[in-house]
Amino acid sequence: MRPLAEPLIFKISRPAIVALAVVGTVLTTYLTVTHFMGNAPAFCAAGSGTGCDRVLSSEYAKVFDIPLTVFGALAYLFVGVLSAIPLFDKREDVKAKKKLKQQLAFLVFLGSTAMLFFSGYLMYLLAFELQTPCFYCIGSAINVTLIWLLNLLGNDWEDQGQLFFTGLSVGLVVMIGAVGLYATQKQVATASSTFAGQLARHLAQQGAKMYGANWCPHCHDQLEKFGEAKRLVPYVECSPNGGPGTPPAKICVDKKITSYPTWEINGQFKVGVRSLQELADLTNYQGPRN
Known about the structure:
Blueprint: H1 8-37, H2 52-56, E1 62-63, E2 66-67, H3 68-84, H4 94-130, H5 135-153, H6 160-192, H7 195-205, E3 209-212, H8 217-224, E4 235-237, H9 250-254, E5 262-265, E6 268-271, H10 276-282
Parallel strand pairs: 3-4
Antiparallel strand pairs: 1-2, 3-5, 5-6
Helix pairs in contact: 1-3, 1-5, 3-4, 4-5, 4-6
């Protein structure tokens, strides 16, 4: 009796997943490189009307100040490599090859399910928080969905009930983590949209620095002028080891900082608490001040 022919979807699923993973890796790597080079991705320049410039430069496109595309590239690489391994398995042992495929397919299922739920949450943010289209983001979400479906349909799962339960558990954990993570990101994004937030980012881009000490009340007053955006201020801690009298940080010694706070702006040092308007004038800030 001849063995049943392997379904076509089983044959094409792994090569197709590898191809999609390569596309996803190349895309996210490209977006990562353009981010660190300070360039706008293709079709994403400000004023292009695509909306992706606003999305990719927002706080929602970062995790702990690391571009989300870095994690995306690693995730695509993970599912791509695992899906490619069986394609190079030349062993004659059919059972061993089948077992390896099942094990790797399950790992790909876990990874792609996590990616699917996280992409779904990002699409929610895109639609309801940013309210801006981003074809790079939408394209990646479609890519992830195709990978998940191909892996699900392209394998013979022994216990589909357990698979469903595992996938649901992974998705729940990812969603809880994403909601918690982006609750903080939302606060930063809101702060970034204010005059204080945009000024803080402008100061950082201009290379300005605020030198201060954790025990200094005037430093506290200066940071409080930025409100929720104070975490965005380019701040340098000169007293990392404790209170007054402790040795200051080397960078502060090298800069000959003796009073706190001290602002370094365009190579000049300004001692004392400064208003936001004054800092804006000193750095030629051109944004809104309302």
